Amino acid sequence: MNVTIKDIELLKNLDPQRIRYYLESRGWKQAQKIDDLAIIWTSGNPTSETPQIVLPLNSALPDFPLSMNLMLQTLEAIENRSQIEI
C-alpha cells in the first residue's frame, strides 16, 4: 500500500540534505544544480528517457512544500515504493 504525504508542515520540514544522501545511496546522480534553488537528479546514464527528479533546496520559498510533494510523488512512481519507505 502506498502512502502519500500531504501534511504541509511535514513537507516544509523535510531536509534536502537527507534526501540528497538517500538519492546518492540509491544510485541517483546530480545532473544540474540551479543556483541554490534546486538540483536535478537522474537515475543512471542520462538520456532523453532517463527518469529525472527535481530536489528543491530552499525551504524559505513559498512553494517548497509543493515542490517536495511533487519530488516525492515522482520518486514514488519511479521506485515503486511508498513515500513513507522513501
- Derived structural class: alpha+beta
* Poorly predicted parts: none
- Measured on Cα atoms, how large is the radius of gyration? 12 Å
Categorize the overall geometry: globular
Proportion of residues in helical segments: 25-40%
Could you tell me the strand content as a percent range? 15-25%
Mean pLDDT: 86
| H-E order | HHEEEH
Characterize the biggest β-sheet: 3 strands, antiparallel
Any guess at the CATH architecture?
A: 2-Layer Sandwich
What gap, in angstroms, lies between the N and C termini? 13 Å
Count the beta strands: 3
What is the CATH class designation? Alpha Beta
Largest beta sheet: strand ordering: 1-2-3
Q: Count up the helices.
A: 3
Number of domains: 1
Brief account:
The chain is of the alpha+beta class. It has a single domain, classed as 2-Layer Sandwich (Metal Transport, Frataxin, Chain A), CATH 3.30.920. Helices cover 36% and strands 21% of the residues.
What features would you describe in this structure?
- The chain is α+β, with helices and mostly antiparallel strands.
- It has a single domain (8-79), classed as Metal Transport, Frataxin, Chain A (2-Layer Sandwich).
- The protein is 36% helix and 21% strand.
- It contains three helices and three strands.
- The chain has helices spanning 8-12, 16-25, 64-79; strands at residues 28-34, 38-43, 52-56.
- The protein has a three-stranded antiparallel beta sheet.
- Strand 1 (28-34) and strand 2 form a beta hairpin.
- The chain is globular.
- The mean pLDDT is 86.
